[in-house]
Write a structure and sequence with these properties.
This protein has about 130 residues and is an all-beta fold. It has strands spanning about 15-20, 25, 30-35, 40, 50-55, 60, 70-75, 75-80, 95-100, 105, 115-125, 125-130. A hairpin with a 2-residue loop joins strand 9 (about 95-100) and strand 10.
């Protein structure tokens, strides 16, 4: 139903979220984190993953099931390693990059085998700056 009066709409800062971890997963602090069917795991080469940000702490759920542990994830712009075999260049700024692993991004989806990591905002000596 549409509003018929003022509403105090709840707000979040949009930066930090808590996600349940996939069973059997281990995530290191600083890792690129993705969701697989709604559960967090370290970035990896696979399709259908949704990037959610950078892990703020390490968490080991290798002995647990889906949702037995949680990871705090920050959204923003982060520097990740540039793929040595499928590198991004300055012409990729403003475009999409793809997840190789929990610290590496690449220029292409490699024949539809990689998920989107985010938007390339810069490339410098620190790496590829990705907005997630």
């Amino acid at each position: 139903m549409a509003l018929t009066k003022d509403r105090n709409t709840p707000v979040r800062d949009g930066g930090v979220f808590r996600h349940p971890i996939k069973g059997g997963a281990k995530i290191y602090a600083g890792a690129l984190v993705v969701l697989d069917a709604g559960f967090a795991e370290a970035g990896n080469t696979a399709v259908g993953l949704v990037p959610v940000g950078r892990a703020e702490h390490a968490i080991d759920n290798t002995a647990g099931g889906d949702g037995d542990a949680f990871v705090k994830v920050t959204r923003g712009v982060f520097s990740f390693e540039n793929s040595a075999v499928d590198p991004l260049g300055r012409t990729h700024i403003g475009g999409t990059c793809y997840v190789v692993d929990d610290m590496t991004v690449a220029a292409t989806h490699a024949g539809n085998t990689r998920s989107v990591a985010g938007l390339v905002v810069d490339i410098d000596d620190a790496g590829v700056w990705v907005k997630i």
